[in-house]
């Protein structure tokens, strides 16, 4: 159990806790991206390059994108609701 | 139940869960000594019999290919569900698209345009070389779907609509899922078992090695590209 | 003790993710907390398959016969990562629909789902 593995585990723990504790969804999307990168580092250190590749692509591209687009839609619909009265 | 009562109950329950899990985990053998024969036998089996250099993809598309069939059908159903949920009652979409594309900066447009071709090459490389290096259908498919995101970020939504990107993504995804099932049936026809490896194995390290593994990797790449691109398009461009 | 550290991290991530989902005030926050709970299973699976001093199960410049880690759990985890992202997409689409229907994204104020 090397120092690198312990450091990666610590990074995952801290960023995972941060994702659950940050309340604002927009900020949470950024923190979720950081969590994904920490997970990818953990997967690399555990000798799993395939899994790390999927984690990087999914958690830094797909999930924050969808969250930000969802929040944009929610905001649009709220302002539309106010226009229509 | 009030919010405060729910918080207290959650703390108690999660504390009990964490305690039980800690007790369970300290009884396990530590990480670093896997209990079964998988770590010792499976990569050698795949390298010597199936001539697949990347053991993880060999497991995904050969030894446990039925799992991957199920997983990519989950992806198919999820894309279908997201499309159904997001396509209802669009009101003012077509008016807003023109205003959005004027607001992106020149640097973003230039980078977006410049990176599309390298991303397509990278994604195709990952999909095609799944049996040799880390990669494969799932990862390469998401990278290829990210090309659609890049076009959107460069402000070219109108082009996405004119290209009929959403129907194209529909067709691509369905073609990938159907092709996976057909390869599975080919296993039944030629060997007698679903998703059996029925093509020639080639030699270890060559591009066409592993029988049906590169074929299934490409097919999965097609399906994942279509599915993830469809989901992204539904979120980005909205209703047709 | 140190060698069970990854299992403890997995248990912690599960508990924290569930905590975030239970005490959430916004549906999108709930979805991302569920993502943390999902990540706990990835950590657990990979920790089970790890072998001390072994390398990745990919034969390129590493010749067959060198000790490698378990590839089966890696295969399970990697398909899982991509598929859970699409399930997150469905949950976010449900969030958009719930917001349209009830005018709010606060799970405490959503009404019952009528047929």
Please report the distance between the alpha carbons of the first and last residues of chain B.
Answer: 42 Å
The rough form of chain B would be described as globular
Taken as a percent bin, the fraction of beta residues of chain B is: under 5%
Number of helices of chain B: 10
Helical residue percent of chain A? over 70%
Show unreliable segments of chain A. Answer: none
Number of helices of chain A: 3
Report the helical percentage of chain B: over 70%
Count of individual beta strands of chain B: 0
> Terminal Cα separation of chain A, in Å?
61 Å
**Average pLDDT figure of chain B:** 82
Commentary on this structure:
Chain A has 85 residues and is mainly α. Chain A has helices at residues 3-21, 25-45, 49-84. Chain A has one domain (3-84). Chain A is built from three helices and no strands. In chain A, α1 (3-21) runs antiparallel to α2 (25-45). The mean pLDDT of chain A is 87. Chain B has one domain (52-236). Chain B is built from ten helices and no strands. In chain B, α4 runs antiparallel to α9 (165-190). The model of chain B is unreliable at 91-101 (pLDDT under 50). With 115 residues, chain C is mainly α. Helices cover 63% and strands 0% of the residues of chain C. Chain C contains three helices and no strands. In chain C, α1 (5-22) runs antiparallel to α2. The mean pLDDT of chain C is 86. The interface between B and C is large, with 68 and 56 residues.
Helices, strands, pairings?
The complex is a heterotrimer of chains A (85), B (240) and C (115).
Chain A: H1 3-21, H2 25-45, H3 49-84
Helix pairs in contact in A: 1-2, 2-3
Chain B: H1 3-25, H2 38-50, H3 55-63, H4 65-86, H5 93-102, H6 106-128, H7 137-153, H8 157-162, H9 165-190, H10 212-236
Helix pairs in contact in B: 2-3, 3-4, 3-10, 4-9, 4-10, 6-7, 7-10, 9-10
Chain C: H1 5-22, H2 27-49, H3 71-102
Q: Keyphrases for this structure?
A:
heterotrimer; A: 85 residues; mainly alpha; 3 helices; elongated; C: 115 residues; Helix Hairpins
Provide a compact summary of the structure.
The complex is a heterotrimer of chains A (85), B (240) and C (115). Chain A is mainly α.
